[in-house]
């Protein structure tokens, strides 16, 4: 396409996956113990979506990437310090809760409003990227809801590859059952793509990109609009940690043959 | 009184999938618990034929959307079909499988109907006249049991939670539903699937075999042995008919230009941004057993690991048996013994 795409990546923040998480009750409903103190990262699926967006924009002249993120802006600032070095984008902030016990419908409402308010956004050129699920709520519904609110009914989930044709058409590979892919062709933008992992590696840190991004990130954080996101209509009867620890038997100093024999017997039941 | 609706799409051969039949059991169970009946809603190329195939399931009315436009999985047409079916049935709770097709379209339909969707549900039950669902949060770190007031309430049920319904065919009470023409700019071209012989992802296999990044690292002699690793891994998964999984580190290496196992893709990834399979047994090799990966093992019943490090993550209560040994040596012998 000669005019490029307007690529909006919806990406929230989640606790670093190496952290120990513990649920607690709060006046606003369930949350995490010391939630605001937990180190956070950009959601891993959203990260893949961002990398894919940057890659696409680089190859489509006239394209632009926005990252629309819902989360406490103080914590978003911390996360952006590292994300900013990965790919060029313009940040749009919704200052609100980013936890896993909020409603995806409410998050989608906030995100859609923020996208609608982006100056100069052209919905006819819109590609809405995000993760097909998340490491917080994990519902896998937010992207569909944002798309519906924006009037986009060409939607794809579990995307691992997007190829743009000379005529602007989009060839999309989506994960389906049994280790297979469904290949579809969409005539063009607008479309919603919920990414799985894509096929790109994580980009190396680029300090120059980071500095360019940070010039716009700080003002974006300062003018972030508050977003009211909760869990209206939901009653949490229980939030619990499942028992995880097993009694591990460690087999050491044992010949490989004996280990192999034991494994084979176990497999055969 | 709740109006419960079982929702499913037909497969390419016109039947209902295993996941769909499991969701049917879930709908029946919920209906019984609430002391209510349930209806069914089917869409696909020939939904009426599918309705007859499960006519004995106990559904009152089978609402059906048929037509070639609904033969393939496509968001625009699927969301429209689901919306129209739920309107026709006046459903308040809709139970379906969380397969790729419904996971894609159900949230949109829920939005159009002013309802909500709870997905990847791992328990569904009636308590004190109300429906409750259980689902995971924070990547299987914790689970929540919830109920809600919004209707219609779409519930997508994870595979393996309920047994598949074994239903007698018959003559179903079918009510055909017409969907207004849907404008779509998407054409489904093909399904890319490896042949049965080449397929290493086997959802129905009894054993999950996970290969970690250690398979491609330098071994005791200071050299990587990637070709031998590939041979050992494929040899085992073929002989044992195991489903192959991998750690994120290993699949990411391919994208970073490092030597990798040629048959591995992102689809093989377990945990983190990958899958959460449900095999009865799992064997991890050359994998450290760190938390982000192991959360993907949540539903693996029996777990064993082979790792040279006695202090790795697996030793911290994450598996039943940890064999401190060279995986190359062990798997070479396993392959010989397993025939």
Automatic annotation (TrEMBL), chain A:
All residue ranges annotated as the Electron transfer flavoprotein alpha/beta-subunit N-terminal domain in the record: 39-202
Keywords attached to this entry: Electron transport, Transport
Organism domain of life: Bacteria
Pfam families: ETF
Transmembrane regions listed in the UniProt entry: none
InterPro entries, alphabetized: ETF_a/b_N, Rossmann-like_a/b/a_fold
Full protein name: Electron transfer flavoprotein subunit beta
Organism of origin: Desulfolutivibrio sulfodismutans
From TrEMBL, chain B:
Pfam families hit by this protein: ETF
Residue intervals passing through the bilayer: none
Signal sequence residues: none
Origin superkingdom: Bacteria
Limits of the Electron transfer flavoprotein alpha/beta-subunit N-terminal domain: 4-200
Alphabetical keyword list: Electron transport, Transport
InterPro entries: DHS-like_NAD/FAD-binding_dom, ETF_a/b_N, Rossmann-like_a/b/a_fold
UniProt protein name: Electron transfer flavoprotein subunit alpha
